[in-house]
Amino acid sequence: MSVSFDPNTIGLPNGNYFALPYSIIESDVVLMQVPWDATASYGAGAIKAPEAIIKASTQIDLYDADVKDAWKVKIGTLPLNESIPTSSRRARSITTRVITALEKGVPLIRLVDESMAMNEACEKLNQRVYKVAKRYLDARKVVGVVGGDHSTPFGLLQAVNENCDEFGILHIDAHADLRDAYEGFAYSHASIMYNVLDRLRNMTKIVQVGVRDYCAEEAERMATDKRIVSFTDAALQEASFNGVLWAQQCRDIVAALPEKVYVSFDIDGLTPENCPHTGTPVPGGLTYNQAVFLLKTLAWSGKKIVAFDLCEIVPSDRDEWDANVGARLLFKLCCYARQTMIEN
Ligand SMILES: [Mn+2]
Q1: What are the sequence ranges of the domains in the chain?
Q2: Cα 116 from Cα 200, distance rounded (Å)
Q3: Ligand 1: centre distance to CA 268 (Å)
Q4: Mean pLDDT, consecutive 10-residue segments, the chain of 344 residues?
Q5: CATH level 3 topology of 31-343
Q6: CA of 267 to the centre of ligand 1 (A)
Q7: Ligand 1 centroid, distance to 22 Cα (angstroms)
Q8: Entry pTM
């Protein structure tokens, strides 16, 4: 480690998250940038998040009252694979064409070529993410994907599925993401959990938190699929209004998860003031402090965080706020995941 590193000053930008000096080999937590928003249906821009979060992350204090010597948590940043944003931009032009056509009333069946080209591009991304993630999971590191839209972590989830006999997902999101091929795209940001349920056999439980915008088909799936446990935003808030402590609700959420946990954090699970520019904002949601307390409850529960993603952050050109919130959450995710490595 570089002798010049001083955790008490702001970080000197070095291309790494939090300007930390650790190499990938010595790191416990490996962060992978996946700047990709090819299937964004409403607000695009998550492609800019991985870089914007690096920039914002150099400003934050690497101290956490709950984590001893938080700055010593070895977080490594993988260099960006430039072909990811390039193919995202190319694929996104297809999305724009499809959405325009659908809005004009063109039936989906006539857009088969576009859907196929899109699915191919997404599969290629998934393979890329999978290959890298598998290597570092095999080396017993925690891997975190910094998206990108919510389709970006599928390859990481595939790798976790191979490395764990059984695991669950703590899914913080405004949306259920249970749509079957949204707008004709099999790997849509709105289909990530559908695909997980469909294809990842060792994933035994999705515990959804903060979900508040979903369609009838998704509601039906949430009610009938035994692998889904929903703590909808409405149910959580109503319990709070009736006097149930947040600490108790967090214990219930964590209790619903198996021993090995993947955290999938869609920033729109938080209240919109924490993510004003995200693609599909919805009123309501978890406050920043509620979310951190939930993650903390998980981290000190004896369960293990094996991997995570942080998605759908859309940085604004005008201010750093969205990326700033994202950077702070990312630091918590890294520190808490590392904590569960020590505890177990
Ligand atoms: Mn999502």
Answers
A1: 31-343
A2: 22
A3: 7
A4: 68 91 96 93 86 95 88 94 95 87 86 87 96 98 97 98 98 96 84 97 98 97 98 98 98 98 98 95 97 97 98 94 98 96 70
A5: Arginase; Chain A (3.40.800)
A6: 8
A7: 30
A8: 0.95
